[in-house]
Amino acid sequence: MDKYSYEVENMNLWYGEHQALYEINMKIPKNKVTAIIGPSGCGKSTFLKGLNRMVEMVPGVKVAGKIKYNGEDILNPNYHPEELRTKVGMVFQHPNPFPKSIYENVAFGAKIQGIRNKSKLEGLVEKSLKRAAIWDEVKDRLNTSATGLSGGQQQRICIARAIANEPDVILMDEPTSALDPISTLRVEELIQQLKEHYTIIIVTHNMQQASRVSDKTAFFLNGELVEFDDTDRIFSNPGDKRTEDYISGRFG
Amino acid sequence: MSKAQNNEAVTHRLLKKNRSSAKRNERTGKIIVFTSAAIIIAATIAITLFLGYKGLKTFFVFDIDIWNFLTSTTWDGTSESGAFSFIFGSFAVTFLAALFAAPIGIGSAIFMTEIAKKWGQKVLQPVIEILVGIPSVVYGLIGVTVIVPLIRNHIGGLGFSLLAGMIVVGVMILPTITSISADAIKAIPIDIKDAAYGLGATRWQTIYKVIIPAALPSLMTAIVFGMARAFGEALAIQMVIGNVKGLPDSITDQAATLTSIITLDMPHTTYGSVHNSLLWSLGLILLVMSYVFIIIIRVVSSRRKI
After folding, report:
1. Pick the residue with more confidence: B119 or A10?
2. B210 near A CB under 8 A
3. Residues in domain ABC transporter (chain A) (predicted)?
4. Helices (H), A9-117
5. Which single residue of A19, A208, B136, B159 could bond B148 by disulfide (Cβ 3.0 to 4.6 Å)?
6. Alpha-carbon distance B163 to B169, whole Å?
7. Is the Cβ–Cβ distance between A51 and A6 less than 8 Å?
8. Angle at A141 between CA A135 and CA A147, to 5 degrees
9. Which helix or strand (DSSP H or E) is residue B299 part of?
10. Per-residue confidence at B156, pLDDT binned at 50, 70, 90?
């Protein structure tokens, strides 16, 4: 198989008349953590949401170019976004568990795909919660509401919920920006464990976080991909002056 | 005194004057709002006490057995009278109307909030507002001239029936259910919709697996609000239900409700008679039920999860 989860070619994106992304070309490697950094409004979240076509929820959006996921162009009109999203999980900026029990949250994806077998669902929920490193904390209260957990726990439930779909990519949109430092640390540790099984693409505001968790880093500015390289190189010896300015805190 | 000093003195005096008038305004405002609140509370208490006094007279002055009053179906204005057929009629109309209006109301609410936002806001919203504004007598008239003959010709019976009441009252409570439901669905955070879409749910799956369950307590509240309105509706229902004093055998049979009997019988009773007092007792039941509806709404709303 390919060694890339995504191959993005000449991606342009408009919100109505406003162009938000310009000619993005990017190959995102499998089973690695790729961080996307850049100042607010640079298009990094838009790019991430383009990868599972969630960006289409915004009225008036137009996407051009090619986004190949495992070799298939997901912008092809015959490609069902629902199918894509079961293979490409997403974790959002604010923990967003459903107002349902922990069990129901994690089993949601499987249930909407028509899995009804109880023992199968139970096994899946347990496996997913274990992978999201939250099983020990919640195993005795799977039937209590997920909204009663702490923010950090909720976010790991959301990660477990995404994992339960058995995806091969997990997109994370600033997953720790609403969490306290200790919860943030636990999520970062979790990301390290998860990359064994999944390709992870994480948008972050926090450059330390990008340097801690990622293998590759992409720097976006004003809707353009300025630089995409190994994280070590981006943070020690960036090839572009603008990257260097951003990383050293000269703007943004 | 120099001009500058003079100016300063004037400013100072103006400020002082402003401050004292602000204080006075503050006090006036307070008095107005406190009085308004007090009047509302006093009116509610007064109505309750008055209806309680009038309604309970039946049992304590005319010595009518409460149990007999609540269970008997004879209604002849004597002390043997019972209100069961009207209590049944009111509840039947209320539940049937809710059964009719809840799916349509919640369905339109989903349509205007989730499916066609623009169209919903441009077309459906004004339609609902118009429905609210139509006086109850107009609903009654339409019921008598359209619904009643329709039932008579196509379903059977006289047309004046529980079924006609259900449809007329159902349409009347439709806007209540729709607008409260729409507000409830709008209040669902977009975050959890995103979560559902992000997991591969289709729009329908998101609606019935996430949005409806999350809004359920508020949707229940909407239905109970509608039922409260249906229970208290008098004019339109009186025009279409037939007002027959007895239990209906079927949905196409004629019936009567607490409200329709009060409006119908009240002009024919002498003040202070048993019959008159019995009608006050029916009124008391209506009041008690409106309290019950409010309690149900409170309990249901407090179970809201979001």
Report:
1. A10
2. yes
3. 6-247
4. 44-51, 81-87, 102-112
5. B159
6. 10
7. yes
8. 90
9. helix B274-302
10. confident
Interval A149-196: pLDDT, tens: 999 999 999 999 999 999 999 999 999 998 899 989 999 999 999 999
Establish if B187 touches chain A: CB-CB under 8 angstroms: no
Residue type, A177: S
d(CA A129, CA A126): 5
Integer Cα distance of A182 and A175 in angstroms: 13
Q: What is the ipTM of this complex?
A: 0.91
pLDDT for the residue numbered B77: 80
Spatial distance between the Cα atoms of A28 and B114, rounded to a whole number of angstroms: 35
Q: Which residues of A touch B213 (CB under 8 A)?
A: 98-100
Strands A224-230 and A216-221: antiparallel
Name A22's bridge partners: A224
Question: Mean per-residue pLDDT for A13-28?
Answer: 94
Distance CA A66, CA A26 (A): 11
**Rounded Cα distance, A168 and A5, in Å:** 8
What integer pLDDT is reported at residue B119 of this predicted model? 85
Contact in structure between B147 and B172 (CB atoms under 8 Å): no
Distance set, CA A2 to CA A29, A107, A168, B118 (Å): 9, 30, 13, 44
C-beta atoms of A57 and B198 within 8 A = no
Own/partner pairs for A68-75, CB < 8 Å, 24+ apart?
A: A68/A6, A68/A7, A68/A8, A68/A9, A69/A5, A69/A6, A69/A169, A70/A1, A70/A2, A70/A5, A70/A168, A71/A2, A71/A7
Task: Report whether B180 contacts B224 (CB < 8 A).
Answer: no
Alpha-carbon distance of B20 to B9, in angstroms, equals 17
Q: What is the pTM of this model?
A: 0.82
Helices B274-302 and B212-232, interaxial angle, to 10°?
A: 170
Considering chain A, what is the average pLDDT of its residues?
92
Query: Rounded to the nearest 5°, which phi and psi values hold at B233?
Result: -65, 130
CATH topology for B70-301 is MetI-like fold (1.10.3720)
Distance CA B28, CA B32 (A): 6
Coil, helix or strand at residue B249: coil
Task: Check whether B221 has a pLDDT greater than 70.
Answer: yes
Whose tokens are 């179970």? That residue is B303
Domain A4-247 has CATH 3.40.50.300: yes
**Residues in A lying within 8 Å of B, measured between beta carbons:** 52, 54, 57, 82-86, 89-90, 92, 94, 96-100, 108-109, 111-113, 145, 147, 158, 161-162, 165
Each domain of chain B, given as residue ranges in start order, spans: 3-61, 70-301
8 A C-beta contact, residue A151 and residue A180: yes
Contact B211, A114 (CB under 8 A): no
Q: How much is the pLDDT for B17?
A: 65
The C-alpha torsion from B96 through B102 and B104 to B106, rounded to 10°, is 180
Parse chain A into domains and list their residue ranges: 4-247
Contact (CB, 8 A) for B152 and B208: no
Residue B234 near residue B259 (C-beta atoms within 8 A): yes
Decide if pLDDT at B115 tops 70. yes
